[in-house]
Amino acid sequence: MPEDQWVILGRFAEILPVPWDSCISRQHAEVCWRDGRLKVRRLPTARNKIIGPSGPSDNFELDPGKSFVIGGTSFTCLDTHVKLVEDSHHLIEQRVFTSNELRGIPFQDSDARIEVLTRLPTVISNTPNDSELLAQLVDMLLVGIPQATTVAIVAGDPGKAPHSTAGALQGDPIASTLDDAPQPEGAWPRDSVRVLHWGNQHPTGAPFIPSARLVHDAISQGHSILHFWNNEDQEPSSHLYTFSGNIDWAFCTPLQGKDSQNWALYAEGRCPTDHAWSEELTDSKCLRDDVKFAELVASILCSLLHARRLQKQQAVLSQFFSPLVIRSLAHSNPDELLAPRLKEVSVLFCDLRGFASESEKHTDDLMALLERVSKALKIMTSNILDHGGVVADFQGDAAMGFWGWPLSQPDFVARACTAALTIRSMFEGCARQPGHPLANFRIGIGIATGQAVVGRIGTTDQGKIGVFGPVVNLASRLEGLTKTLLAPVLLDEVTAKMAREQLDSTQARFRRVVRVKPYGLENPLTVTELLSPAAECRELGDEHIDLYERAFDHFLNGSWPEAFGYLNRVPAEDQVKDFLTVYIAQHRRRCPEGWDGVIQLTDKG
């Protein structure tokens, strides 16, 4: 944090944003680092109290190592000044430990170390982010390596070779933001090593000064390396090569694995006062124990980081694929399985209705409105996935899914139709519950079937799982027609034909609604409504659907008076019949000359 500069702390602060905690306001407090202490002031916009070292307070100061609490979140003040140095001129001994060598060393004091190792999986799985993970790892290492005065998680760049002349640099432990002062010629590269997080057994407020050479050597060689320094002649004020002149040894253990990002464990400490500078020092069993413990932590950590990456990948994939597809990806070559290819698919567009009017009513609480829209989208996407579909895209308050890829699905049309009926049923159920967050929302769904290119679509740098082709545009047009025809779910001719073959009357019902030529399309289209079974839709029985179908046939044939008569026998509650009824009435029940049964639409709907 910059010296003597006030910055905002809160959920949506620009400089010090806080992970989500409902008790923390968007801008809750302002803090300032001045004269070695952290000043904290509660802002007028804060809803809840701040609990300082002496209890609730709106204005207080903290020494390094002290904490304050807002809601369920604890904030600790740390002086995290870091200085990286080269130490080759004062190094008296270097010891490289191979994994095979350490494997044969028995622990002298295993209880505390085993407890730390058994906690590692829980820490990895439960920490919400890398910052929290690093903090907990450092705390555990301090327990497992009690001789260390300081431990750290560092990251190095082995591609940046060290130079011969010593040179110091300053850096923030998290972001590695370095001083702007010119760097001495021959100095270590400023970004050669980053200290991700560090801690010490007894906080003193002094800076942490790790050896950049030690980190580079350990990471580049892939082995744990132990350094010893002779500090007997060093001035107490010197910070050139050791921690305030009080560090005799340090070791660095690299994490071996593609998920470790060149991380390493770093520990340093002071030799016992009864040790002399001799070869016996480098063979100290206690230090070998510490190095072996660090190797075990590094090995377990690499495995757990890899497992966590796979879990994250699976969580991302689960937003787009059904569990069946994810299991297939685990046993197949993803590049081959997801490669773009031409397939026959059913595409579903689902649009949320009522969002515009609701946004006008709730301009003062858009976050709550966004939460409601998210719940609506979850109904759409969860049903797409639950019925074996793929979530392809989001467009504002609309979702798109498709079936027929990447696995073979002989019943992919039936799956798409069943998902659509379930989505409709769930929204209608919400509408029947006054006060439900989704009570004022409705949906429109269009489903079309045809050839399309599906798979990973995009550039080599950035891509997504998608579907491309005219069938996508047709599904979107059908969804738009639901507004004009007042039918919640509409199908194209191919989908309707295949769905009639794959679904019986206990699963779905169908009725042809109208034959139109959509705006901008060349070919006319017979639009079919997808309906729930009679047992779930008592207001529109099978006899009513039969009456509408007869009216539709007469309409196509130009017998409009007969069509009008059949339409009048369909219940008034059926809004779908209004389109043909009004169209016939506007033409005074007389069929135009040259009538081909097709209504030309003048807009997209």
Query: What is the CATH-assigned architecture of the largest domain?
Result: 2-Layer Sandwich
Tell me the count of domains: 4
CATH superfamily of the largest domain: GAF domain
Q: What do the pLDDT scores average to? A: 79
Low-confidence stretches: 161-188, 233-244, 275-283
What is the third-level CATH name, the topology of the largest domain?
Answer: Beta-Lactamase
Main beta-sheet annotation:
9 strands, mixed
Number of helices: 16
The CATH class of the largest domain: Alpha Beta
- Shape, principal axes of CA atoms: elongated
Task: Please bin the fraction of helical residues.
Answer: 25-40%
What is the alpha-carbon Rg in Å? 34 Å
* Beta fraction: 25-35%
The secondary-structure class comes to alpha+beta
Q: What would you say about this model in short?
A:
Helix content is 34%, strand content 25%. The longest helix is centred in the middle third of the chain and has 34 residues, at 285-318.
Describe the structure.
The chain is an alpha+beta fold. The protein has four domains: 70 residues, Sandwich (Tumour Suppressor Smad4), CATH 2.60.200; 229 residues, GAF domain (Beta-Lactamase, 2-Layer Sandwich); 184 residues, Nucleotide cyclase, GGDEF domain (Alpha-Beta Plaits, 2-Layer Sandwich), CATH 3.30.70; 96 residues, no CATH class. Helix content is 34%, strand content 25%. It contains 16 helices and 26 strands. Strands 18, 19, 20, 21, 22, 23, 24, 25 and 26 form a nine-stranded mixed sheet that branches. A six-stranded antiparallel sheet has the order 11-15-16-17-12-14, with helices on both faces. Strand 5 and strand 6 form a beta hairpin. Helix 2 runs parallel beside helix 6. The radius of gyration is 34 Å and the shape is elongated. About 8% of the residues have low confidence.
